[in-house]
Predict the 3D structure of the following.
Amino acid sequence: MSLLVVGLFVGRGAIGLVGPDEPRYASIARTMAQTGDWVTPRLWGHPWFEKPILYYWSAATSFKLFGVSEAAARLPNALAALVGALLLALAAWRLWGGRAARLALVIFPTTLGIFAFARAATMDMLLAVSVEAAMVAALFALPRRPRERAWRRHEVWLGPRLRLALMGAFIGLGTLAKGKHTAAAVAAISKHILEFEEIDQTLAHGENKVSFVLKSGLQVDVRLLEKESFGAALHYFTGSKAHNIALRNIAVTRNWKLNEYGLFAGQRRIAGATEEEIYKKLGLRYVEPEMREDRGEIALAKAGKLPKLVTVADIRGDLHTHTDLTGGIVSLEMAKWWRLRWVWAPQ
């Protein structure tokens, strides 16, 4: 047991937080402890829903009890690793007896991965131990073999049904540790977007969509999707419609489906995080947005003969511009600032 405690707890604060994850997560937990807002994670004052909330709750509680420090930020994972070691020993005892349980207590904390994550301010250890606890609860809910000794003194208060309920509870806890974003989190993001001071009129506020008109007259549509769907959504909503339809037809010829959530083979998403991977999966070179008009660019992409577009690096100056004095939107001072940065070099 002393080896277990030394391996998991001694020297947790010997080095500073390692970026970018540790400082970010610890900062969110510190803000939670300081503001008393235990519902909305915030980074530099802004709502931050990158990860679920279990670590933030744990670290904020640690900061409240022991003060803000590297050791306090890493304490939740060290405690989780200790619980994980005890759970592993319990499972080993259940299956193979006392000697196996003692070996588990020695091997577990000296494993490199456990040693590292028990000293990190991240979500991983909390997730691993939550899943482990669910598995141990399921193990104790399984029917016994005849040669096993019955735990009759526990049967009254910890029967199989309660153990299965505990398994479900620990799975839920794992979701709070490192699961998908909840509907409440998405709703909070939508609400924060609509607090933007430049919004003149809100047009729509749905489950994963927000539409509004800015004071400048520009309409903005915001879609809230999983990271794995970002590229597909970007491609779908920026068009053009004709180009998108052409790509969907290519997908259909392969018995695939392409929509704003990704490229799917049956129920399995095979691409969608980036636009590039969608084109690659469809056997095409990446088509720049400026050429997506279904005017021959798909055939060129298939043949690898797409033309090279003019980029900002190719531009040497402006022949004719307007400021806000003559119908434009840029001030004269801004125009002068840009003029100093153009280099006129006729080719």
